[in-house]
Amino acid sequence: MRSKGSVPWKTVRLFISSTFTDMQAERNHLVKYVIPTLRQKCALRRIHLVEVDLRWGVTEEEATSGKTVEICLSEVDKCLIFAGLVGDKYGWVPEANQIRDDIRVNYEWIQGHSITAMEINRGALKRKNDPKCYASFYFRDSSAILSKIPEKLKSQYKDDNLTKLNELKTSIQSTKFPIFKYSPTLKTISPDGLPELVGLETFGEAFIQNVWRAIETEYPEDEVGPSELEEERFYHEQFVEHKIANFVGRKEKIKEVKKLLDSNSTKQPIVIAGLPGSGKSALTSYLAHSFKESSSYTIFSHFIGASPA
Questions:
Q1: Where do the domains of the chain lie, and which CATH numbers do they carry?
Q2: Which residues form the DUF4062 domain (predicted)?
């Protein structure tokens, strides 16, 4: 068996599908609490977890040019794991002229579906007999929310496509995919008019359980788990990988540091200083990564706060 250090990192993409205005609390809960927990667990398997949340992924220009459907379906196809959040909204149904002709030809079944229903069909229902289809669903009962929020906000949580929504839920329930049902309640209305919910903990726990089960199925754990030292190293390697993923520029700074290292015959420490958020961690991560393969340097990288230890 190969040592943990020789196992290459893998990337797992997780698509999160839902209508937008009614599921902001759930998506925020995922971003703040659930995804970080899953990322820590994945790090021990040398796995990068990338969540795809198109709440931020479709620009206004792309939406008005009719690319929304294409972007959503193509992103679904790139993801190993699909998670569908279903409440009391069916969601936006694009008009025929908002879907390109080639998309309608390639996906002839999409006409009349909401964007969310398209994602669910593409990511799960059309693949329900595929053993490699890792999908899970989370059905929210919004009755406790709707009974307390002002009338003007109810359209954010419920729409008029009840028949299509029920048909979609029935189709999901007819599959083997795990379905978790939960009933959050209203805590308060924020100053910007958004309802704040409580009772999402069980939803988050079920989400972690289902996603982790899919990851374990696709990438089983080695017979021998990592030692404490290996586990600690994984966290720091993951930190570096995360920081350098979108690293660009800084060529002059990199040259300057390399020059200092090459000329540092007295072995004096080199300190990289800067304001918070100026990119110190990203730069040092890039340096550690780029110098790692060089026989001229011995690299020991440790980043405070990168691991739970």
A1: 10-218 (3.40.50), 228-291 (no CATH)
A2: 13-96
